[in-house]
Every structure is written in C-alpha cells, then in structure tokens.
Amino acid sequence: MNIECPQCDTVNDTTADRCYSCGAVLRPLTGHEAQQALYKAFVGPKNEDYYVAEFINFDEQGRAGISWNWAAFLVSMYWLLYRKMWLWAGIAMIVPTLLVTLGLLILVMLNQTAGIAVMVAVVLALGFVPPLIANALYYRHCRNTIAAVQARQPDYLLQLEELEQRGGVASKGILALGILVAVIVPRLVQAVVTPAYDNINGRASVDIALEYEQEAASAIGKYYRQHHEVPPSLAAAGFDAQPPEDVSDLHLDTANGQLELRFGIGGRLTGTRLLLSPTANAKYEVSWRCLSPDIPRKMLPPECR
After folding, report:
1. Which of 5, 71, 146, 253 could disulfide-link 258, Cβ–Cβ 3.0 to 4.6 Å?
2. Residue 278 — φ and ψ, nearest 5°?
C-alpha cells in the first residue's frame, strides 16, 4: 500500500517518512525518529548511516565518547574542512605548528632529553587524538547547530531545510579555498617563528661558548696573579677543557692576553668570534670585557653588548 502526500498528492512508498516530491511529513514521527531525521538532514548523504549511528549511540550513552574515525586519522584538518567545522579546522592549522615550536624551544633552552620527549608526545598526540575525538566534535557541532536552528525556527520542515543547507559537506570551491588557507597559514606562522627560534638557538650556543671561554679566562687570571705575565699557552695555564660542539677554536693572544673564540661551520654563527679582553690592576687581578665584532647583537648576552 502506498501513501499519498497531503500537500502535493504525490504517491510515495509506505516506508517513506517524507514526500519524495515536496518533502512534507507523511506520518507522525516519534521523538527518536524526529531526532534521527534532524541528524540525517545535517549530515547529508555522505556517510550518513555511519555518522547517524554514532550520534544515536552518543545519545543513548548520554555523552559524546571516544571512537575512531579513519578520515580524521588520515587527513584530520581536511576532514574538518570537509565537514564545515571551520573553527576546529583553523585550530588544527595553527596548534601543531605551535606545539612543534614549543618542543624545539624546550630542546634548545632546557635539555635534549626533555625536548625529544616533548616532540615525541606532540607527534603521538597529533596522530591519535584527532581521530579519537573527531566523531564527538562532529556530534557536538551537529547538536549545537540543531539547537540554534530550533530556537530560531519552530516549524519542523523548515528546520530540516535549514539543516540541509547549513550541514552536509563543503563544496569543492570552498574546500579548495580552505586547503589553500591550510597551506598558507602554517607557512606564515613558520615565517614568524623560525627567526625567533634561530635567535634563541644562537643565543643558547653563545651562552655555552661564553661559559667555556670564561673558564679559560679564569685559568689565565690565576696564572697571571702567580707569575705576573701572560701564560705562553692555554695548556700552560692549566686549561685543557674540551670545547662545545659549536666552537671550532679558542686562541690566546700571548702579547695582550686576549681570548678569541671562533664558532665552527653550520648555522648563523659560522665563523663569528667572541672575544674576552683582559684588564689588570696593580695587584695583578684581571677583569674581562666580553665583546664580539660580528655576532648579531640580539644573540649576545647583556654583558657582551
């Protein structure tokens, strides 16, 4: 037996809830069926059965729980764009860059072990957290949109129409624009963050090198107080410490006692020099002035500027 639409007289199959022609409701919907129809209208035909089943399961549990979404695992940011979750897509563009930058800063400023641990945690989080919470995010997005539409529009059929317009998946043009933005924004963030990281990394290298050079200066100062002359070599002053990785050479000018540290190959500090210039008083006590003719000022400690 078929059902005739009361609005347009179109004959519909008995299993139809709405008229194939005009969309009018053919039979009263229960609360569960009405909610399911709202979900279907918002999700659209793309993977409708999967998402509606997930949403109903969340309803039955009374909360949005953890589940697995393969699309969000493989292309999380693009999935967010595809499902029109613009805010979350923007967060997915920026947060990974910021987290990776944080890991690099910790790697440089604190210690290698902590930095590597943070980087591993970031990679694991970015890989597994999005697909675990993707369905829950989409569910909340759907519920919030439905609530907003129902608050503004009391008519059920008009609610379905508006949800169909606001939901579904992004058009190819909008998706292409979103992907373009997704490519550009991280590059802009990187353009701002990379110089700052280079400066911090360079500053850390200079700090380590200065500490090494000051150890040599201390040995020279002790030698000068005892012998009232500049030592003929660093070894004669009792200094034989291994240089830091970034340092290629530490030279003592035996004529005036000045120390010249030179950075090795690699990075912005390649070939630059860090000098410690001595001044002795009548008691043969030596004070040192730190300076550099070629290291960028922002990378120098305050006492060397």
Report:
1. 253
2. -90, 150
The parts of the chain modelled with pLDDT lower than 70 are: 1, 27-30, 104-105, 107-115, 189, 192-193, 196-197, 266-267
Domain holding 286: CATH number? 3.30.700.10
User: What is the Cα–Cα distance from 211 to 33, expressed in whole angstroms?
Assistant: 73
Structural contact between residues 200 and 105, judged by C-beta atoms closer than 8 angstroms: yes
* Sign of CA pseudo-dihedral 150, 155, 160, 161: negative
> To which H or E segment does residue 251 belong?
strand 247-252
* φ, ψ for residue 198, nearest 5 deg: -60, -40
| Whether residue 156 sits in one domain with residue 207 | no
Q: Write down the residue that tokens 């190819």 correspond to.
A: 172
- Judge if pTM exceeds 0.70: no
Residue 5 vs residues 18, 22, 40, 228: alpha-carbon distances, Å: 9, 9, 21, 111
Q: pLDDT tens-digit profile of 93-119?
A: 888 877 777 776 676 666 556 667 777
Work out the burial of residue 152: count CB atoms within 10 Å of its CB; fewer than 13 is exposed, 13-18 middle, 19 or more buried: exposed
Q: Are 135 and 54 in contact (CB under 8 A)?
A: yes
pLDDT score for 193: 67
Q: Is 289 helix (H, G, I), strand (E, B) or coil?
A: strand
Grouping H, G, I as helix, E, B as strand and the rest as coil, residue 274 is: strand
